[in-house]
Amino acid sequence: MTEEYKLATQALHGGQEPDPTTNSRAVPIYATTSYVFNDTDHAANLFALGEFGNIYSRLMNPTNDVLEKRIAALDGGAAALSFASGQAAINAAILTIAHSGQNIISSTSLYGGTWTLFTQTFAKLGIEVRFFDPSEPEKINDLVDENSRCVYFESLGNPKNDVPDFEKISKISHDHGLPVICDNTVMTPFLLRPIEHGIDIVIHSTTKFIGGHGVHIGGVIVDSGNFKWADDPEKWPEFCSPTPSYNGVVLEEALRPIGNIAYIIHIRTHWLRDTGAAMSPFAAWATIQGVETLHLRMPRHSENAQKIAEFLNNHDQVEWVNYPGLQTHPDHERANKYLPDGKGAIIGFGIKGGKQSAINFINNVKLLSHLANIGDAKTLVIHPASTTHSQLTEEEQKETGVNPEYIRLSIGLEDFEDIKNDINQALS
């Protein structure tokens, strides 16, 4: 599709034309492992990266291709690649450019699973993760050295709910010649397009708001096509040096006529090929159904969340509320700058009485669903300190924004009054 179409139209049409064989308007599920080659030359060209096409569904699939093109269009990226989970996408995005003896710079405001990936698994691989407080992006300058490979942060810290200064982080990182990776799961392209603020690589867990209904796990990486790997070829041999497994092709040179997509193609042809963390065609199809209503759901999520946050902020049993749409939030001004279309669905709050009161609240809800997820059409609730962030030390929990009384809400699409009433009765 051409760039003239608005985001809502791209959400419904991006990356797809009616099926050429059947004329199906809906995206078909291509349930196939592999594809017939036209002849031996065609097969050889595909395997040598001489041309693009379908080889094996671990690498590519027509259903997945629609999803990838659609999300790339929504984010304003050059290309995208789907994965079996958001965690797999984060892993591939970083391990493509960071290796043993090197380091990455990361915000402390992280989802618990990302924190353990960075602090435990990456450590075993010889990759150091150096942390900065996103409220002090200038600290990045003190952490960078010749072995630094990227700067990583979340568009809205989960569950800290802090709003980083995207443009400042991007500028500092680019001054050091480092690409910036942003996990935009919580906001989605309909509330925030990080690439417009200097971000080079965007990650989404499609499990959350993009899928929207809690039915399939998935992830996607979006390559902006803006980072100039060729400006420092010795630093980025992954893209600027001969590739042994593809007859010595230099990806950055070979792909230049198409676009600056060596990064995402390297991930497809190496990480996805070798690790096999591919999204299934059925999961891609289910996720596409979510994408097609994303422009309708995200405003409702944000509207409900704003009202619930205001209700909680005035409740006599509530000690504090953490939501960037409130004027009392420390990042409220920055949220208005970067998130003018809505502040998202995630609310953190603390009940008077501490941890036990928080546990009592969760055990008393009736409409809200107590489970480990966010981004569902239904309203969800959890106690992070004892669940999603329980593997972190007490000090690490504090760094990520979690304390013993913290309750996280992911506000859904139900009638506001029903959500409010359930919260109110659980607080009584």
Describe this protein's structure.
- The protein is α/β, with parallel strands linked by helices and 428 residues long.
- The chain has two domains: 196 residues, Type I PLP-dependent aspartate aminotransferase-like (Major domain) (Aspartate Aminotransferase, domain 2, 3-Layer(aba) Sandwich), CATH 3.40.640; 133 residues, Aspartate Aminotransferase, domain 1, CATH 3.90.1150.
- It contains 16 helices and twelve strands.
- The strands form two sheets. The protein has a seven-stranded mixed β-sheet with strand order 1-7-6-5-4-2-3, sandwiched between helices. A five-stranded mixed β-sheet has the order 8-9-12-11-10.
- Helix 3 runs parallel beside helix 11 and helix 14 crosses helix 16.
- The radius of gyration is 22 Å and the shape is globular.
- The N and C termini lie far apart (53 Å).
- The mean pLDDT is 94.
Helix-strand sequence = HHHEHEHEHEHEEEHHHHHEHEHEEHEH
Helix content: 25-40%
- Measured between the Cα atoms of the first and last residue, the distance is 53 Å
CA gyration radius, whole angstroms: 22 Å
Structural class: alpha/beta
Largest sheet composition: 7 strands, mixed
Counting DSSP H or I runs of 4 or more residues, the number of helices is: 16
| Percent of residues in β-strands | 5-15%
The coarse silhouette is globular
**How many domains?**
2
The CATH class name of the largest domain reads Alpha Beta
What CATH architecture of the largest domain do you see? 3-Layer(aba) Sandwich
Number of strands: 12
Spatial strand arrangement across the major sheet: 1-7-6-5-4-2-3
Q: In the CATH scheme, what's the topology name of the largest domain?
A: Aspartate Aminotransferase, domain 2
Runs with pLDDT <50, length 5+? Answer: none
Mean pLDDT over the residues: 94
Assigned CATH superfamily of the largest domain = Type I PLP-dependent aspartate aminotransferase-like (Major domain)
